[in-house]
Design brief:
- There is one protein chain.
- The protein is mainly alpha-helical and about 100 residues long.
- It has one domain.
- About 90% of the residues lie in helices and about 0% in strands.
- The radius of gyration is 42 Å and the shape is rod-shaped.
- The chain starts with a helix and ends in a 7-residue tail after the last helix.
Length: about 100
C-alpha cells in the first residue's frame, strides 16, 4: 500500500501539471499569433507593392497606347497626303503614249 501512495500523483500535482500545460499552450498560441500577425503584415506590404507595380504598368500601357494611336493618326494623314501628291504628280506629268 505504501508503494501505491508514492507512485500515484496527488490531485495537487495533477492540477499543477494541467496549469503548466495550459501556460505552455497559451505561450505557444501567443507565439503563433505573433507569427501570423507578422505574415499578415508582410502580405499586406507585398499586396501594396504589387498594386503599385501594376499601376505603373497600366500607366505605361496607356502611354504606349496613346503613342500608337497618335502614330496611327499620323500614318493615316501621311497616306492621304501621299495620295494627294500622287494625284498632283499625275496631273503635272505627261501621260506616256503607247507605242
Amino acid at each position: 500500500m505504501a508503494d501505491e501512495m508514492s507512485t500515484k500523483p496527488t490531485i495537487e500535482t495533477v492540477l499543477e501539471r494541467i496549469n503548466q500545460f495550459d501556460k505552455r499552450s497559451e505561450s505557444r498560441f501567443d507565439q503563433l499569433e505573433t507569427r501570423f500577425d507578422r505574415l499578415e503584415a508582410r502580405f499586406d506590404q507585398l499586396d501594396a507593392e504589387i498594386t503599385a507595380r501594376f499601376e505603373q504598368v497600366y500607366i505605361e500601357i496607356d502611354r504606349v497606347a496613346s503613342v500608337a494611336h497618335t502614330t496611327k493618326g499620323e500614318m493615316l494623314g501621311l497616306r492621304v497626303e501621299f495620295r494627294e501628291l500622287r494625284t498632283q504628280l499625275r496631273e503635272m506629268l505627261p501621260i506616256p503614249q503607247a507605242s
